[in-house]
Design a protein that fits this description.
InterPro entries: 6-hairpin_glycosidase_sf, GH-type_carb-bd, GH92_N, Glyco_hydro_92, PNGase
CATH topology of one domain: Beta-galactosidase, Chain A, domain 5
GO molecular function, one term: carbohydrate binding
Strand order of the largest sheet: 4-5-6-7-17-12-10-9-15
Shape: globular
Number of strands: 32
Bound molecules: 2-acetamido-2-deoxy-beta-D-glucopyranose
Organism: Coniella lustricola
CATH architecture of one domain: Distorted Sandwich
Helix content: 25-40%
Radius of gyration: 28 Å
GO biological process, one term: glycoprotein catabolic process
Distance between the termini: 74 Å
Strand content: 15-25%
Keywords: Hydrolase, Membrane, Transmembrane, Transmembrane helix
Length: 873
């Protein structure tokens, strides 16, 4: 960074900026510095703070008799953010370990702004960095275009949402509004580097135009506090000709410039600005409408008007599509603005209510949720909501590197940013069921996020499952990917089948209509939609007839991208397994047999002769010792060839997407050849037995073929369990955390997808779900004790009796469950329902624990293996 960027001004405002300028060291526990300079003290409070400080010092240090209890109270308040024992608000103390800025660089695409758990309103500053700004803010030095109200978190694809940004000018040159810039492109301004500060429910940033912006949120509304430098300090600004008279504009635009239609209205008396627009989703097809309602407080209105492009109009207070269709609001930047007198308190508050139904509902949402524009109270409320969510987990912090605690809690926090609760805001159909949006995408989230939520937030998970079923009810198919009331692109299988099957096995059933749920998953399996790019499955006729998707298939029933024949085959097979489990649970034995039979379809693409080559040097090909991989297969039954390493980090990683011609999606045949969660015992056999399997899985992790930045790699970290080496699962979990999951801005190996944090959270707690099964693979937790609130009110406790904070001893030697020896390397969900105590002794080497075949996690062979009576003798 350029040293010239360090400000030299005398104002307090800019000094603060300089203090916040210090970049953090990689791995530095951030919460310390962030909490130290998190607030931008409004003017006039400084003196009061000083008096208070002196008072506190006197009470604490001067031994005046009779002040004992007051002293204790003050100590309690002072130490509150750092104390592990504040009892009034359970769980709130962990918020200091949550750093929302993790994953805001290097492709993490994490949303670091303010949000309620699963909240709809998600205000943050939007960066002008198209490669990285999928979630709005990027931790770099790109320009800031404004502060918009809706976002998704952690997605790939194009920039998502980002509707109705506010932008704030401290004033216009020569006090002439036409000299201010209005459009997104021309108004974008630099920030003070590293001035961003974030914690749950709060985000702030300082702009180089001297404006400091803080923001918080309720369920459906953003609340901003914009602060300005002292009026008489304006001569220290960059442009002395700017007259201090703040101008705030609301742009109808979204991040991806997708708006058409819409309109805006400014009330010059009250300052209320309302508006709407039609937008396109970021990774799908369709259109959605969004509405806002903005109110301001803290300064007198001087003038107001609308703008189109860079042209403000003071004589016009609205631009609306006229009913005869002769005038449409032009696409691009357009909106309303208000110019204020200098604010009496140094800041202006702005509340922006949001709705997907109407402008009126946007106003009602804002008035109901933030009636008084009380910034601090709103922050408290959203922090209480997060504290409540986090209170279901407790870990022993003793001896733990704070950075690991930050990795852990921040990851759990991110898993509750999306899907977003749009109940009451469904613009597509009327229903009494909950409506969630931003399942973005289930291909990413079914593996770790939803199973985690089934444990730590079963109520939300139940509502999400009900929302999925309701989407089926009204649209005819379950989604795989869904955002902004639109169908998103399907990446793999129909993985909502696994979410629903998993929920069934885990008792996520409150108000769930299982008959319709079953109808929905069977529809995925049996009825091909006309366009299967955005729902259901493709190539179903061949899949049913041949038991695999031929790479040269001709599909007469529907259209879709005829690619990914390997990855779709193995995903369909596992989805069918999930359907079979549900069929069995619902008492449908015939369907159970049918779908179990289909769950073996992975075998049909297994080419036992396929060797694995790698390039050693120019023109020189070498072969690894591994043979037998999933390969593409033609209609005539013969195998085609697909490089076993193609689309892994070691060979042309970025070749396998939806529209490329390859047989795998975002991964290699090496990776997909491990995807047989339904029958790992058969896979182990197919790969040549336990020893060969373990060797191969080791090689997968050691050789760099694995890519931990994508969710398909989560389960293979723990699949050593199926080879009788659960210690190696523990080993690899420690290899990846914290080296790839850590507290830096780029501390996630890929798009977060609200899933990466579920991986680190689960791995650190020591139980990893096999999604779609009642199975958690056990490894030693990263803490001496983990407590998870059990469904029946008690606790599921996992404890290491001889905990080693250096993690040399990370291999389970011996375990007891509720006092009795426990030799299985896995546990059932019942542990998290009933509660109980799982205790470990760990050691520095692998042990015999979990190595006997009878202690392996279960496999579901088909046809079922009949017990050999002679064997049991
Ligand atoms: C494919 O189309 C045929 C003819 O319309 C229909 O009978 C069949 O059920 C369809 N198959 C699937 C799997 O959708
Ligand atoms: C943190 O994680 C990122 C992303 O996985 C990785 O590139 C980086 O090397 C890690 N940093 C440290 C200090 O471990």
């Amino acid at each position: 960074m350029a040293s010239g960027a360090i400000p030299t001004s005398k104002t307090r405002f800019r000094k603060d900026s300089r203090a916040a300028f210090r970049p953090r060291r990689p791995g530095q526990p951030l919460w310390r510095s962030k909490w130290a300079n998190r607030s931008i003290l409004p003017r006039g409070r400084g003196r009061l703070a000083l008096y208070l400080f002196v008072f506190v010092v006197v009470v604490l240090l001067v031994p005046v008799p009779g002040l004992g209890s007051l002293r204790q109270l003050l100590l309690g308040i002072l130490l509150f953010p750092f104390s592990a024992s504040s009892r009034s608000r359970p769980g709130r103390e962990v918020l200091k370990y949550i750093d929302p800025l993790i994953g805001t660089a290097n492709g993490g695409h994490v949303f670091p702004g303010a949000s309620m758990p699963y909240g709809m309103a998600k205000p943050v500053a939007d960066s002008d960095d198209r490669r990285e700004n999928a979630a709005g803010y990027v931790q770099d030095v790109s320009l800031i275009r404004g502060f918009s109200q809706l976002h998704d978190s952690g997605t790939g694809g194009s920039p998502s949402l980002g509707n109705f940004p506010l932008f704030v000018h401290p004033g216009c040159p020569l006090d002439d509004i036409t000299m201010c810039s209005f459009s997104a492109r021309s108004r974008a301004v630099m920030r003070w580097p590293y001035s961003a500060s974030a914690k749950p429910g709060y985000f702030s940033l300082r702009l180089k135009n001297s404006v400091a912006a803080e923001m918080t949120a309720s369920e459906h509304a953003s609340l901003y506090r914009f602060s300005f430098p002292d009026e008489d300090d304006s001569e220290n600004g960059q442009d002395i000709s700017v007259e201090y008279s703040p101008l705030i504009l609301v742009d109808l635009q979204d991040q991806d410039n997708s708006r058409h239609n819409g309109g805006v209205h400014v009330d010059p008396k009250t300052g209320r600005i309302t508006g709407d627009g039609d937008f396109r989703p970021s990774f799908g097809t369709g259109v959605y409408e969004a509405y806002f309602c903005a109110d301001f407080q803290g300064a007198k209105i001087r003038r107001s008007g609308v703008f189109m492009g860079d042209n403000p109009h003071e004589d016009r207070q609205s631009i609306e599509k006229d009913p005869e269709g002769k005038f449409n609001v032009p696409s691009g930047s357009a909106g309303g603005w208000i110019q204020f007198e200098p604010p009496t308190n140094g800041h202006i508050l702005a509340r922006v209510g949001m709705s997907f139904m109407s402008r009126e509902q946007a106003c009602e949402n804002a008035e109901r949720e933030i009636p008084k524009l009380d910034f601090d109270k709103t922050v408290e409320k959203v922090q209480d909501a997060w504290a409540d969510k986090m209170s279901v987990i407790e870990v022993n912090e003793a001896d733990i590197d704070p950075a690991l605690l930050v990795t852990f809690w921040s990851g759990l926090y991110r898993t509750m940013l999306s899907p977003q609760d749009y109940t009451g805001e469904n613009q597509l159909w009327e229903s009494k069921e909950p409506y969630f949006d931003s399942f973005y995408c289930i291909w990413d989230s079914f593996r770790a996020q939803h199973p985690l939520l089934s444990i730590i937030d079963p109520v939300a998970q139940t509502r999400m499952v009900r929302a999925l079923i309701d989407i089926y009810r009204f649209l005819g198919k379950l989604p795989d990917c869904r955002m902004s009331f639109s169908k998103g692109f399907t990446q793999g299988g129909s993985n909502a089948d696994v979410v629903i099957g998993d929920a069934y096995l885990k008792g996520i059933s409150d108000g769930v209509d299982w008959a319709t749920a079953y109808e929905a998953v069977v529809s995925d399996a049996e009825v091909e939609p006309k366009s299967w790019n955005t729902e259901g499955r493709g190539n179903l006729v061949s899949y049913h007839q041949l038991g695999y998707i031929p790479s040269d298939d001709i599909d007469h029933n529907g259209t879709g991208r005829n690619t990914r024949s390997i990855s779709r085959t193995v995903e369909y097979a596992y989805d069918d397994f999930a359907i079979a489990q549900l069929a069995k649970g619902l008492g449908n034995e015939a369907d159970y047999r049918k779908y179990m039979q289909r769950s073996t379809n992975w075998k049909n693409l297994w080419n036992p002769h396929q060797a694995d080559s790698y390039i050693q040097g120019p023109e020189e090909v070498r072969w690894s010792k591994f043979k037998g991989f999933l390969q593409p297969r033609l209609l005539d039954g013969s195998f085609a060839h697909h490089d076993t390493r193609l689309c892994s980090p070691v060979h042309e990683m970025h070749k396998c997407y939806l529209d490329t011609r390859w047989a795998t999606y975002e991964g290699s045949p090496w990776l997909y050849s491990f995807y047989v969660p339904q029958d790992m015992a058969a896979l182990v056999e197919t790969m040549g037995g336990k020893k060969a399997f373990v060797e191969r899985l080791q090689y997968f992790h050691e050789s760099g073929i694995v890519y931990m930045g994508n969710e398909q790699s989560f389960l293979p970290v723990f699949q050593f369990h199926y080879g009788g080496r659960p210690g190696l699962s523990s080993y690899w979990a420690h290899q990846y955390i914290p080296s790839l999951f850590n507290t830096t801005y780029g501390g996630i190996p890929g798009n977060d997808d609200c899933a990466m944090g579920a991986f680190s959270g689960l791995a650190m707690m020591g139980f990893f779900p096999v999604a779609g099964q009642d199975v958690y693979l056990l490894t030693a937790p990263f803490f001496s004790e983990v407590k998870v609130r059990a469904r029946n009110g008690g606790w599921a406790v996992i404890r290491i009796l001889n905990f080693d904070p250096t993690y040399h001893a990370k291999y389970i030697q011996h375990a007891t469950l509720n006092g009795k020896p426990y030799t299985k390397s896995w546990i059932k969900h019942d542990f998290f329902v009933q509660g109980g105590v799982l205790e470990y002794v760990v050691g520095i080497g692998e042990s015999t624990w979990g190595t006997k075949e009878e202690d392996f996690p279960p496999s579901w062979p088909w046809p079922p293996v009949v017990e050999d009576a002679s064997k049991s003798l």
